Amino acid sequence: MMHEAKSFVVDGLMAEGSEGVRLCASSCGGCGSVYFPRTVSCRNPDCSSTSLEEKLLEGRGILYSYTIQRYQPPNLFRIDNWEPYALGLVDLPEGIRVMGMLSGFDLDNIRIGETVKLISECLFTDPDRGKVMTYKFAPEITGRDAQ
Ligand SMILES: [Zn+2]
Predict the structure, then answer these.
(1) CATH code of domain 6-143
(2) In angstroms, what is the span from residue 8 Cα to ligand 1's centroid?
(3) pTM of the model
(4) Where are the domains of the chain?
(5) What was the pLDDT predicted at 146?
(6) Residue 54 CA, ligand 1 centroid: distance in Å
C-alpha cells in the first residue's frame, strides 16, 4: 500500500497523534505562561525561569473574532485552489489566543463565541514534500444549533 508523503507547513508548529492534530506550544516551568508558536525563553518580565517545556494544546477553543480574506495573498503565501476564506482568532483553554484559517464554515454565517475544533488540512501539494498540511479551525458540529 502506498502512503502519500505528508509534512507540516512549518516544523514544530503542530503534531498529529492518536487524538488528532494538536498545536505545539511552550509552557514556562517558572510562571506557567504558555506560548504558541513555541519559544526558547519566557517573555514574562516578572519571571526569570529558563525552563520551558513543550506542551500540546487542547484541540478545541472558542471563536473570539474573525475576518474574511477576499483577495488572494501574494505568492509567498502558498495555497492550492485558492478561494476566499475566513481567518479566525480562537481562545484556547490554556488562556492564549491563536490565529488560524477557518474551514467548513459558511462565510456568511460564522458566529463569534462558537466552539471550534482543530483540524489539519492540505495547504498545497509540493513535488518534493508531498501534501503540505496546516492547522485550521472547523465548526464543532455537535455544538451547533439547528439552522
Ligand atoms: Zn515564566
Answers:
(1) 2.40.50.840
(2) 28
(3) 0.86
(4) 6-143
(5) 45
(6) 13
